[in-house]
């Protein structure tokens, strides 16, 4: 039964990728399905909110009879214990993994799998992780109350600093001085010699780079809000409080410095905006060279224009400066809705590495909408299976914009103020509608 | 060479007598397919139905249950796993023949 495990892992991977849970992502190299990387985005209303936590899974041949080995890799190089059950050395204590003594019925079973493990880990990331520590579940003395608060405060700080800021700075090549290193000269597809093609294994496997960048843009305002909250609660330079269960190296130590975090966060935002801006220039070069991506995007553009014409779609699509990497959509608000009469310009920027890097989209017309961040980034879901289809992105953006009765989903929290009003009381919802309509009206002026 | 099928007779079709969308809780393969170790579905790769109502490929559940750590429990509901008697006879034969002319 040598291959039994591979069949199942492959199945689970494609299942998870298809469902595209907004807070989970999984990936592996094509040649090696036994080593899986997974990303968990920290849940709303917890100190882990919108942090990027990575785990590595090793599936042995006896899977699913035996559980996989799971290691946390977002640990600041083995120095940070993010949770009573997620150690700084990467150990994840969970009864279903057999890394923790479990109650009857909590041990591993062959019916468990990748997704159920990820959900179990995600549930450790709670609003009050202090009580995860055995013996502290019902600890409610005044000293415990104080500890619980201190613990949440430092986790929030390190979630921002390590899981978000450090990760993005690394992706973008931002040094400690805040200077962005010049990107490594991108290889020209045509000059590539067959025998210098990178051996897969020598390149670090970073499957979540583009995802984290795009999610950062979604959650940027929530990060800023968390920093604001932190600044009100603690002072810069104040040291973290050590928890009674934290040991010598298995701990979370450091000092608060929200001022510094805010500076770095804004710097990342700027670098991301610059990056998408630079794609336009790169795109013009690619166009001149008639690269595959340039030709592909040009063709897709013409097809979308054609399909708009055929289906009498009122919206208008054109290229900015004839650049197939920059599309400008003029969207006409849907009649009989709050958007009625509105006129919005939406810019789609494509990467020369499309579709590996997904488009960056921005509403240039200001709009107060719960699915559009204050800087104009829309929160939309394009099906992963059709991510190379540019039109699926346009359709998904319009769908997010026009959706009448979306389910409550805090993972779509990209405009904190609008989100709060939208999901608040009846009076809040009326206020939301008023503000949305006002911004629609302004779009016509 | 072009082949034209003029006529074919299906002799029998069969499927396991269990809900259509049920998959093996261990290998997560549909019961119309085999366990990962086998090639042909059918009597060579039979199913086992537990008294608890959970079905598995026999090969899958035996691999699981023979481990000490399984404690004899069903992987799905963790009740004691006891199989029902009619093990190999759960298949349903359907011997309709379908004469078919393509021309």
Automatic annotation (TrEMBL), chain A:
SMART domains attached to this UniProt entry: UBCc (SM00212)
User: EC number(s) in its UniProt entry?
Assistant: 2.3.2.23
Q: Does the keyword Transferase apply?
A: yes
Query: Which GO CC terms are listed, alphabetically?
Result: cytoplasm; nucleus
Give the highest taxon in the source lineage. Eukaryota
Q: Where in the cell is it found?
A: Cytoplasm; Nucleus
- What is a single molecular function from GO for this protein? ubiquitin conjugating enzyme activity
The UniProt keywords, alphabetically, are:
Apoptosis, ATP-binding, Cytoplasm, Nucleotide-binding, Nucleus, Transferase, Ubl conjugation pathway
Q: Where is the UBC core domain?
A: 4-164, 292-445
Can you say what this protein is called? Ubiquitin-conjugating enzyme E2 Z
Native species of this protein?
Canariomyces notabilis
Automatic annotation (TrEMBL), chain B:
UniProt keyword list: Cell cycle, Cell division, Metal-binding, Mitosis, Nucleus, Ubl conjugation pathway, Zinc, Zinc-finger
Does this entry carry the keyword Cell cycle?
Answer: yes
Pathway where it operates: Protein modification; protein ubiquitination
According to the lineage, what is the superkingdom?
Eukaryota
**Per its UniProt record, what Gene3D superfamilies does this chain match?**
Zinc/RING finger domain, C3HC4 (zinc finger)
One GO cellular component term of this record is: anaphase-promoting complex
Q: Name one Pfam family in it.
A: zf-ANAPC11
One GO biological process term:
anaphase-promoting complex-dependent catabolic process
Give the principal location in a single coarse category. Answer: nucleus
Q: Which InterPro entries match?
A: RING-box_E3_Ubiquitin_Ligase (IPR051031), RING-H2_APC11 (IPR024991), Znf_RING (IPR001841), Znf_RING/FYVE/PHD (IPR013083)
Q: Name one GO molecular function term.
A: cullin family protein binding
| SMART domains referenced in this protein's UniProt entry, alphabetically | RING
- Give all residue intervals belonging to the RING-type domain: 35-78
Compartmental location: Nucleus
Which family does the UniProt entry place this protein in?
Answer: Belongs to the RING-box family.
Q: What is this protein called?
A: Anaphase-promoting complex subunit 11
């Amino acid at each position: 039964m040598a291959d039994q495990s591979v069949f199942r892992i492959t199945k689970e991977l494609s299942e998870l990728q298809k469902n595209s849970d907004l807070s989970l992502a999984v990936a592996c190299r094509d040649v090696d399905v036994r080593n899986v990387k997974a990303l968990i985005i920290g849940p709303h209303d917890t100190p882990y909110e919108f942090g990027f936590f990575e785990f590595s899974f090793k599936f042995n041949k006896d899977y699913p009879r035996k559980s996989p080995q799971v290691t946390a890799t977002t640990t600041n190089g083995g120095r940070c214990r993010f949770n009573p059950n997620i150690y700084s050395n990467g150990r994840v204590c969970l009864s279903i993994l057999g890394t923790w003594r479990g109650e009857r019925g909590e041990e591993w079973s062959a019916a468990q799998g990748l997704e159920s493990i990820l959900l179990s880990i995600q549930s450790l990331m709670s609003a009050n992780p202090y009580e995860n520590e055995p013996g502290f579940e019902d600890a409610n003395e005044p000293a415990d109350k104080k500890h619980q608060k201190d613990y949440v405060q430092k986790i929030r700080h390190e979630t921002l600093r390590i899981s978000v800021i450090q990760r993005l700075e690394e992706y973008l090549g931002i040094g400690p001085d805040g200077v962005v290193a010049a990107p490594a000269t991108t290889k020209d597809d045509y000059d590539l010699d067959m025998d210098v093609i990178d051996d897969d294994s020598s390149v670090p496997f970073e499957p979540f780079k583009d995802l984290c960048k795009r999610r950062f843009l979604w959650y940027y305002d929530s990060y800023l809000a968390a920093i604001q909250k932190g600044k009100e609660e603690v002072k810069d330079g104040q040291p973290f409080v050590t928890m009674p269960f934290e040991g010598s190296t298995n701990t979370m130590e450091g000092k608060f410095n929200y001022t510094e975090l805010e500076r770095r966060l804004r710097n990342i935002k700027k670098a991301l905006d610059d990056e998408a801006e630079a794609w336009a220039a790169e795109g013009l070069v690619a166009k001149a060279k008639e690269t595959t991506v340039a030709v592909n995007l040009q063709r897709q553009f013409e097809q979308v224009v054609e399909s708009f014409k055929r289906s009498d779609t009122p919206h208008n699509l054109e290229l900015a400066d004839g650049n197939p990497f920059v599309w400008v959509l003029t969207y006409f608000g849907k009649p009989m809705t709050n958007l009625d009469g509105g006129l919005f310009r939406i810019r789609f920027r494509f990467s020369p590495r499309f579709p590996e890097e997904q488009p960056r989209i921005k509403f240039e017309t200001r709009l107060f909408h719960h699915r559009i961040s204050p800087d104009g980034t829309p929160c939309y879901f394009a099906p992963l299976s059709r991510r190379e289809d540019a039109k699926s992105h346009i359709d998904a953006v319009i769908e997010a914009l026009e959706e009448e009765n979306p389910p409550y989903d805090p993972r779509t929290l990209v405009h904190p103020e609008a989100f709060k009003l939208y999901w608040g009381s009846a009076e809040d919802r009326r206020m939301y509608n008023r503000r949305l309509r006002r911004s629609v009206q302004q779009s016509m002026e | 060479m072009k082949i034209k099928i003029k006529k074919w007779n299906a002799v029998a079709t069969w499927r396991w007598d269990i809900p259509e969308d049920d998959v093996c809780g261990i290998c997560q393969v549909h019961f119309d397919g085999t366990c990962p170790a086998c090639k042909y579905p059918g009597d060579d790769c039979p199913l086992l139905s537990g008294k608890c109502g959970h079905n598995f490929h026999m090969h899958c559940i035996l691999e699981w249950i023979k481990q000490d750590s399984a404690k004899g429990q069903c992987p799905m509901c963790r009740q004691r796993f006891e199989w029902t008697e009619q093990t190999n006879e759960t298949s349903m034969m359907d011997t309709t023949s379908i004469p078919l002319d393509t021309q």
